[in-house]
């Protein structure tokens, strides 16, 4: 089975990390993988770097275009190169109004057999602009069909092997809340700081052991805020995976009061190590968020700006965030139980291996004969798990 992936190859962006993770999972599956990267940022894993030297030889069984919806496009010249062409993308707003060019999304994507969105917010935002599926005949002319391009919900994955479960002291003198990643406005780090600072004042000595640790490389979080808020720590450093893993291991609860997410990789990483999480119950979080092992956070939708009143994203409820932070801090046995379960469930649900299997199964069910033919090839080339080799 030959699969070509068009995506960024970079460890510095969400799409780039997901492009790398997707390719690695396809290789582990046993597919014959080719890459046509939209951009490349070294360093890259060796198995990805070697693919950059591999000649593109059509036809392919599956072409995956995993890019931002602003640039997602299926060109007529590429349609015949693959039996199935899919787009895969994510969007953190209720509509695509801020994209501009109102007709362009449907025109750019009507030659795809299907477009996958990371969550229901993505899919429903794209649906009004999605046009009828079109095909290209042998003369290169485009003809519309009677059915729209299929929209499918499937979230990308992550690699749990880098984030093994660790033992924590859940009942000691200190208790760590944390955030990590590109902590810009959409991630709402200032809301987390406000909630933490208010709890410090309201609960006094009863909240004395609580700490808030924010790891970022995005300007905006000022170190001087540490002087105003007891036990707040801000880190502006580039950390290797080993140090980030140790950082997670020292904390207990990840805060994700985000306005919108495609997935939220740091939250998945933290929970894989055995921590729990408080996360806005909207967007990409909803694909994995469960009160069995985490704490769904209330929110309201609000316009991104006055220019686009119908284009909304989430605003987490600060009072509910404070209630949940206090609950986690004051009921540590419950928090530990949730963290222990997260370390088991998140890797099972969200690994790239599991996602790639769901990808082939969903295409089998959604794309008729072409999807079933692809599934049969996928089954034939699938490698057995390592413990069966």
In a few lines, what is going on in this structure?
The protein has 389 residues and is an alpha/beta fold.
Question: How would you sum up this structure, described in words?
Answer:
By secondary structure, this protein is of the alpha/beta class. The chain has two domains: 2-157 and 352-388, Rossmann fold (3-Layer(aba) Sandwich), CATH 3.40.50; 160-350, Rossmann fold. It has 13 helices and 16 strands. The chain has helices at 14-29, 46-49, 76-79, 104-109, 120-126, 189-203, 225-228, 241-250, 265-272, 318-330, 332-350, 352-366, 368-381; strands at residues 2-6, 32-35, 60-66, 82-89, 114-117, 132-136, 142-148, 150-153, 175-180, 210-215, 232-235, 253-256, 276-280, 295-297, 299-303, 312-316. It has a six-stranded parallel sheet. It has a six-stranded parallel sheet with strand order 11-10-9-12-13-14, sandwiched between helices. It has a two-stranded antiparallel sheet with strand order 6-7. Helix 7 (225-228) links the parallel strand 10 and strand 11. Helix 6 (189-203) packs across helix 10 (318-330) and helix 12 (352-366) runs antiparallel to helix 13. The protein is globular and about 75 Å long. The chain starts with a strand and ends in an 8-residue tail after the last helix. The mean pLDDT is 95.
């Amino acid at each position: 089975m030959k699969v070509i992936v068009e995506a960024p190859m970079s460890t510095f962006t969400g799409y780039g990390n997901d492009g790398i993770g997707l390719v690695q999972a396809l290789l582990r599956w046993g597919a014959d993988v080719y890459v046509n990267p939209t951009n490349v940022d070294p360093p890259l894993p060796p198995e990805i770097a070697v693919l950059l030297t591999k000649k593109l030889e059509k036809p392919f069984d599956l072409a995956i275009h995993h890019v931002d919806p602003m640039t997602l496009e299926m060109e007529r010249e590429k349609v015949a190169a693959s039996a199935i062409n899919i787009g895969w993308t994510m969007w953190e707003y209720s509509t695509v109004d801020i994209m501009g060019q109102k007709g362009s999304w449907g025109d750019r994507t009507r030659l795809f057999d299907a477009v996958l969105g990371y969550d229901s917010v993505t899919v429903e935002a794209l649906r009004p602009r999605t046009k009828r599926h079109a095909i290209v005949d042998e003369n290169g002319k485009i003809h519309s069909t009677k059915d729209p391009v299929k929209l499918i919900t499937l979230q990308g994955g992550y690699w749990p092997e880098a984030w093994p479960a660790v033992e924590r002291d859940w009942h000691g003198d200190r208790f760590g809340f944390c955030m990590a990643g590109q902590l810009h406005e959409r991630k709402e780090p200032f809301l987390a700081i406000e909630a933490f600072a208010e709890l410090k004042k309201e609960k006094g000595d009863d909240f004395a052991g609580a700490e808030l640790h924010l790891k970022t490389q995005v300007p905006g979080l000022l170190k001087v805020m540490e002087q105003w808020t007891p036990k707040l720590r801000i880190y502006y450093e580039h950390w290797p995976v080993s140090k980030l893993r140790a950082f997670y291991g020292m904390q207990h609860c990840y805060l994700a009061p985000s306005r919108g997410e495609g997935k939220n990789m740091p939250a998945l990483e933290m929970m894989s190590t055995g921590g729990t999480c408080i996360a806005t119950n909207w967007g990409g979080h909803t694909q994995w968020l469960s009160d069995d092992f985490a704490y769904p956070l209330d929110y309201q939708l609000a316009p991104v700006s006055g220019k686009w009143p119908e284009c909304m994203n989430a605003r987490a409820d600060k009072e509910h965030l404070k209630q949940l932070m206090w609950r986690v801090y004051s009921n540590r046995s419950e928090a530990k139980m949730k963290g222990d379960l997260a370390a088991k469930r998140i890797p099972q649900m969200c690994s790239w291996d599991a996602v790639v299997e769901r990808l082939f199964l969903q295409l089998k069910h959604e794309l008729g004969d072409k999807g079933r033919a692809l599934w049969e090839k996928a089954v034939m080339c699938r490698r057995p798990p390592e413990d069966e080799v």
